[in-house]
Amino acid sequence: MTKTSALWHLSPQESTIRTHSDQPVSSGKCRVEAAYSLISSGTETLVASGQVPAELYQSMQVPYMEGNFSFPIKYGYSLVGKVVEGDASLLNKYVHLLHPHQSNCVVNETDVSVIPDDVPPQRAVLASNLETALNATWDAGVSAGDRVLVIGMGLIGSLVAHLSRQFPATTVQVAEADPARQDLAKEQGFFLYDPPSKPFDVAFHTSGSSAGLQTGIDAVGNAGKVIELSWYGTRSTKVNLGGSFHQQRKRIISSQVSQIPSHQQTRWDYRRRKQTVLELLKDDSWDQFLTATVDFPDTPKLFDKLRQGDRSQLSWTIRY
């Protein structure tokens, strides 16, 4: 039996690494030896802190999750590793898959996506979050020449901003309250929010705050769209829908990666979306969003810091 170690959240205050025997590899399955995984700090901090509403327990489940949101729970959804057992077509290839943070795992062959040779394994951990960003630009219908505002420059906000500025002639501004993240946004070449004489065509909201959502509503113009990517967990949200909201027919659109937007569904499936994201990741400009690395044994201590509100890094990559 092969031994494997996984990150578990035992309570809203405690995380640990558990070691156990993994299952053997059978037909249609493969063993992946982890190289890196990415902590989606917004969602995963809410999970690790016990802030998932009971009515969302089922919809928030991820592939290969164990336990439940009432604790203990094994949770995570972006892992990159090398196939060390399985079909010859996959053997020794680096793959990306949705899986909690774990040193090695036996999974269905159909659940892995082979990473192109010109995408470094560490960069490939951005795939899941970049799918979220791509979905958001589909929901927004961003096009050439648009004026775009991104509110909240965590990892998702940064990826959305970088993807949006790749459309020809778009102008992208970012709104961020944290001074350190303001500096990081400027280093990445973004302009900080300065209310323009002309309104924005679209605003992406990722800050998880009522104030941030209100900024987006107020910033877009007539028939403008506010794309809401924040997930609030058990927290309530208060916004003012008076003023220009109704008179200018503004729209608030929920964007969530688990569903492909309806206008794309006739031609797109999850595998095509994943392959598109892996093609995008051939560009080394995405490396700037990988700002910190932690060794797997130190991950429980990191979650202690995340629960206490540590926002010092844009992203955290686990190294195995």
What does this structure look like?
The chain is an alpha/beta fold. The chain has two domains: 3-125 and 290-319, Medium-chain alcohol dehydrogenases, catalytic domain (Quinone Oxidoreductase, Chain A, domain 1), CATH 3.90.180; 136-264, NAD(P)-binding Rossmann-like Domain (Rossmann fold), CATH 3.40.50. Helices cover 25% and strands 28% of the residues. The protein has nine helices and 17 strands. Strands 3, 6, 7, 8, 9, 16 and 17 form a seven-stranded mixed beta sheet that branches. A six-stranded parallel beta sheet has the order 12-11-10-13-14-15, sandwiched between helices. A two-stranded antiparallel sheet has the order 1-2. Helix 3 crosses helix 4 (155-164) and helix 3 packs across helix 8 (270-280). The model has no long low-confidence stretch (mean pLDDT 96).
β-strand percent reads: 25-35%
Structural class, judged by helices and strands?
A: alpha/beta
Biggest sheet: strands, sense, closure? 7 strands, mixed
Q: CATH superfamily assignment of the largest domain?
A: Medium-chain alcohol dehydrogenases, catalytic domain
In round numbers, the mean pLDDT is 96
Q: What number of structural domains do the residues give? A: 2
Task: Report the CATH topology name of the largest domain.
Answer: Quinone Oxidoreductase, Chain A, domain 1
Detail the poorly predicted runs. none
Q: Write down the secondary-structure element order.
A: EEEHEEEEEEHHEHEHEEHEHEHEHE
What separation lies between the terminal Cα atoms? 20 Å
Number of helices: 9
Number of strands: 17
CATH class of the largest domain: Alpha Beta
Q: From the coordinates shown, what is the CATH architecture of the largest domain?
A: Alpha-Beta Complex
